[in-house]
Specification:
114 residues, single chain, mainly beta, six-stranded mixed β-sheet, 10 strands
């Protein structure tokens, strides 16, 4: 069973950047066709933020389009979420998971505040 560990979160000022990592263990992320990044803000439902399918087909939620980029490095067994021009409303716990199957990990907290 492939497990995923999210990292890279933290406290950042509005307008700042963070790069989240989703590292796979127990298997090859290259065998997983599509991977997602979700986020859950306090009091809100978990929402899909970004998806990468195959090597380069990507989806970004309207709220992050133009600011976030999803990518994958199969050699490093990792999926990334580059977040630029961060806003306070991006504050949430961020999770990665395969589009099909898989389990939720612990997530990584992102807080955007001055």
């Amino acid at each position: 069973q492939v497990q995923f560990v999210e990292s890279g979160g933290g406290l950042v000022q509005p307008g700042g950047s963070l790069r989240l990592s989703c590292a796979a263990s127990g298997g090859s992320i290259g065998r997983i066709w599509a991977m997602d990044w979700y986020r859950q803000a306090p009091g809100k439902q978990r929402e899909l933020v970004a998806r990468i399918a195959g090597g380069s087909s990507t989806y970004l939620a309207d709220s992050v389009k133009g600011r976030f980029t999803i990518s994958r490095d199969n050699a490093k067994n990792t999926v990334y979420l580059q977040m630029d021009s961060l806003k306070p409303e991006d504050t949430a716990v961020y999770y990665c998971k395969p589009t099909v199957g898989g389990y939720w990990g612990q997530g990584t907290q992102v807080t955007v505040s001055s």
